[in-house]
Amino acid sequence: MPEPAPQPSPHLPPPPPVPAADAHLFLDFDGTLVPIAERPDGVVVDDDLHDLLASLAAAMPGRVAVLSGRSVQQLDALLGPVASALDLGGSHGAEFRAAGGAVEAAAPPAAMAAVAAAAAAFAARHPGTMAELKTMGAAIHYRAGPEHEAAAHALAERLAADNGLVVQHGKMVAEVRAPGSKGAALATLLARAGGGTPVMLGDDVTDEDAFQAAAALGGVGVLVGPPRATAAAARLDDPAAVRAWLRGLLAERGA
Ligand SMILES: [Mg+2]
Fold first, then answer.
1. Out of 22, 28, 47, 209, which one is annotated catalytic?
2. Does this model's pTM top 0.90?
């Protein structure tokens, strides 16, 4: 008998149209607010998303966060002026900035130069892969060279073991970075805002610890994408559904 396939999570309902009055939104970026792009630098923040985030920040001041694997610097560049009105958790929680505040982060890993050089050398040797240097680590994207998946993950494991870093597996990406978690960033930013009910929306396995943190703090995780095993208690289909849900939330608040 073959092993049974892992079972997807039971059907999850959509999140309630209006979360708690003291809700604090935590929004993953890639795959949640914008569709995943072929290359990480291929993502654009369209006017619709910019206006939506600005409206949310105005309607829920200090209670809208973007939690991403991207660095705070990358998020600033992508989001533009609205970024300063949002809480930002970058580099998978290794750095964060409360709305209107300054970036708080551990120092970048001492081994960053060696890690960056190894990632760049790997990408040069494996066509279809791409090295992305980040504030707190480096990522190898293999969406255009999926045959290099095993080698990319092996490199990440080796760099992590050699340099006291952690491996982050994501969608078509192997990443090595400074320790930190989206769940910890969620808890810290929520505490800075004086508490509240966290609602965490995310699509990737890297969002699971934030789903768990949200549930532990009396809130809810919302999986974006097809059903799978998850700590989320609600689900939306895709970034378009996320934006529609957020617009509904604004409408209910009269914004
Ligand atoms: Mg994502």
1. 28
2. no
Q: Which residues pair with 67 in a beta bridge?
A: 89
Dihedral sign of CA atoms 187, 204, 99, 110 in order = positive
- Using the mean position of ligand 1's atoms as its centre, give its distance from the Cα of residue 223 in Å: 10
Calculate how far, in angstroms, residue 71's C-alpha sits from the geometric centre of ligand 1. 13
State the helix-helix crossing angle for 149-163 and 112-125, rounded to 10 degrees.
160
Q: Give the SS3 label for residue 228.
A: coil
Predicted confidence (pLDDT) per residue in 143-180, tens digit: 999 999 999 999 999 999 998 888 988 889 999 988 87
Q: Sign of the C-alpha dihedral, residues 138, 140, 72, 199?
A: negative
Distance 90 CA to ligand 1 centre (A): 12
pLDDT digits 0-9 by tens, 114-131: 899 999 999 999 999 999
76 is catalytic: no
